[in-house]
């Protein structure tokens, strides 16, 4: 209880109009059950909100209950999940470092056994083992409508890896200029939880600067907790925004979102260091544009970054924003936030392409209903398991949990597992799936939609999807609607 009270009293919330913060760490099950039967949610020690806050809707209280329960479960499995992830990453990297399984035995005998180095350019995370591709598709040229989206997903996928891997990928595989790697501080987690990188793609006289945020680690329970958390802050003039994503980008306990801060090299905040680096690069080439991309949690940060730029009146920077490209993006804010972001993108002529592959679970959280605030905005570029795309207002089965969708989802998961063995013959060797990827496909037979969140299918849809669908963005459609 002391932890909860300390959090409530020491975090300055004057930067926002309203807030609802869930803290499941110390809540007991009985306390949680009582939430369902009392509309005075402000009295609950695990909910931080303005005094006297009342929630009359049982449906809303029930979803808060589910959110906190899910976070409690994730906290319980945090260490075992981390151990499992470490084992899954260690074994393939250990084998590669020693030249294969049979060489391990020889190296043991000869005393030359090599342990994998997590900082080397050869080390792969679980995401990297899922999809080992590093090269861009040589068939997709700069004038192809798919080009920027295909580049974006490769950057979003690469952001999961270490700095050495990213530098080698950008410089040797993409033949582009690497600019910066970011390892940034989260004031609330008191840890370096936010990573990303920046690069430059030059073609003749034109330059496109890219920013990519790292996404949700599949074996990090804290990342998954952020995805299911319903906490929010109401930012004046913007709307209600997911608290976890704001914290990951650089929200500060004592100051909130000041326009400028005194930088601390030991504890850099993602928003401020990226904004500064972006300004420095654009000063060298005022004609350059920049794009922002990310997968999963990284996709959410992709949306919040320009929102805070707009909050601070950074119109010069926003005028250089070519587009936002998100893959497997969770919901970020309420309807008002969506309207605000549409206005920002339309006013600055920026594209927004939100890609959703098939039954991917993450774009369908946090839960969206008439009682809740989290909404997607703009069009959904939706692709089925045959990589056939549609531009829709919302992804099908928008909240995932549906009795009618249950059988089709698991049938589709079985097809995706079968497809992993034949796609090589259909589309070529670069589409061959790893054993790690197929292992996730098997998990999909138990939790349909979980393997659909991986980067493999998002890379595939940008390469195999119809070029025509990549020409239309939410911004361009909005302009046409106005006309």
TrEMBL record:
Q: Which GO terms describe its molecular function?
A: triacylglycerol lipase activity
- For the keyword Hydrolase, the answer is yes
**Does Hydrolase count among this protein's keywords?**
yes
Question: What InterPro entries does the record point to?
Answer: AB_hydrolase_fold, Fungal_lipase-type, OBL-like
Superkingdom: Eukaryota
Residues covered by the Fungal lipase-type domain: 211-368
| UniProt entry keywords in alphabetical sequence | Hydrolase
**Single Gene Ontology BP term?**
lipid metabolic process
Protein's name according to its UniProt entry: Fungal lipase-type domain-containing protein
User: Organism, per UniProt?
Assistant: Lactuca sativa (Garden lettuce)
